[in-house]
Amino acid sequence: MTTLPFYSAVKDDFEAVNQLIMRQLHSRVPLVEKIGHYIIGAGGKRLRPLVVLLGARACGLSDSRQHSLAAIIEFLHTATLLHDDVVDTSDLRRGRSTANALWGNAPSVLVGDFLYSRAFEMMVELGDMAIMRTLANATNVIAEGEVLQLSKVRDASTDEATYMEVIRSKTAMLFEASTHCAGLLAGASQTQTEALRQYGNALGIAFQLVDDVLDYTGDAESMGKNVGDDLAEGKPTLPLIYTMREGTAEQAQLVRQAIQKGGLEDITPIQQAVRDCGALDYTLNLARSQVDEAVELLQTLPASTYRDSLEQLARFSIDRSF
């Protein structure tokens, strides 16, 4: 994963963050370390710590505080994944069994709690009240987004505005907090810090929109999760919402029933419906507009390889297959 070009500008920083993460997973309870190492060791794209490092470097920061901030962000993200997999009863993530599938729900939730609290311990050590305020708020917003999404499961009346509120809260918020805090930590100007914050928001939205397209067009091996997972859980994502709104009566009814009952019995005709009615193109075009906005925001930063990497990352968000 880290062979992608936008990782190379912060290769050494990335390695320092990985080492710090492993040191901070220490616990006097062996099961905490075992589950922590398992979920962190699964890898993934580590995009949130990546944007911390690129954003901080783009604003001229060169000390190890950025490593601490990147590790904090990764712990917050990993905690949400552990909790998500329990809520969604998922058994596959990043191509491996989920922690809850291996150890059960209770240990997964509690280790998620441990990672949250370890992240806040590290925030205290960082000693920046503005960053702590930003991340505390982000953690609240993410939790609200999770609950909002949960309340809309199997609700076929969910509209696009509600969907966008869910993804802004649940996914984009941590990207936004990552880049915002990078600017704060680097002591960037208010204009640059605000541009980084908005870049993170746009990037997060684009990634989630593309994820929701890949749920119908990707394959399990490259994505590291099952195709149709969201449909199986009865989650009304944008391709489905658009199909119910703009598709034929038959397509709309097919999707409505599938959301209401959950499961994957109708996955093949639904894949056909979301493609035929233009739902996938509509969702991808929204993602492209977010990427265009993200790239434009970067122009407030001085030219550097780090700014170039942030732009490459934004473009990758819509060109990927995983």
Describe this structure in words.
Supplies octaprenyl diphosphate, the precursor for the side chain of the isoprenoid quinones ubiquinone and menaquinone. Pfam families: polyprenyl_synt (PF00348). GO terms for molecular function: all-trans-octaprenyl-diphosphate synthase activity; metal ion binding. By secondary structure, the protein is mainly alpha-helical. The protein has one domain (12-319): Farnesyl Diphosphate Synthase (Orthogonal Bundle). Helix content is 75%, strand content 1%. A two-stranded antiparallel ribbon has the order 1-2. Helix 12 packs antiparallel against helix 13. The chain is globular and about 60 Å long.
Mass-distribution shape: globular
Which bin fits the share of residues in helices? over 70%
User: Tally the helices: what do you get?
Assistant: 16
Mean pLDDT over all positions: 94
CATH architecture: Orthogonal Bundle
CATH superfamily: Farnesyl Diphosphate Synthase
Number of domains: 1
Question: What proportion of the residues form beta strands (DSSP E)?
Answer: under 5%
Strand order of the largest sheet: 1-2
Would you summarize the structure shown here?
Belongs to the FPP/GGPP synthase family. InterPro entries: Isoprenoid_synthase_dom_sf, Polyprenyl_synt, Polyprenyl_synt_CS. With 322 residues, the chain is mostly helical.
SSE arrangement:
Layout lengths: L10 H14 L5 H12 L5 H12 L6 H23 L4 E2 L2 E2 L1 H5 L1 H22 L2 H23 L8 H27 L3 H28 L2 H4 L5 H4 L5 H9 L2 H13 L5 H10 L2 H19 L7 H15 L3
Antiparallel strand pairs: 1-2
